[in-house]
Amino acid sequence: xxxxxxxxxxxxxxxxxxxxxxxxxxxxxxxxxxxxxxxxxxxxxxxxxxxxxxxxxxxxxxxxxxxxxxxxxxx
Length: 75
Known about the structure:
The chain is mainly alpha-helical. It has one domain (18-74). The protein has helices at residues 18-34, 44-74; strands at 2-5, 11-14. The protein has a two-stranded antiparallel ribbon with strand order 1-2. Helix 1 crosses helix 2 (44-74).
């Protein structure tokens, strides 16, 4: 379970599937191998919050592009 503090101060709990945790652990291993050239993640927990933010930003961009395409097709 990942706990993230919302802007209002409340804690939001997010269930983390095993496959997601495994990917986060792989990022930690790769980060260690990169040494000072990587972000320096030391645990899967450290990876999950930035990954969530990155994923949301990526999804928002993709949906924005899709909405633009749909608007153009309707025009």
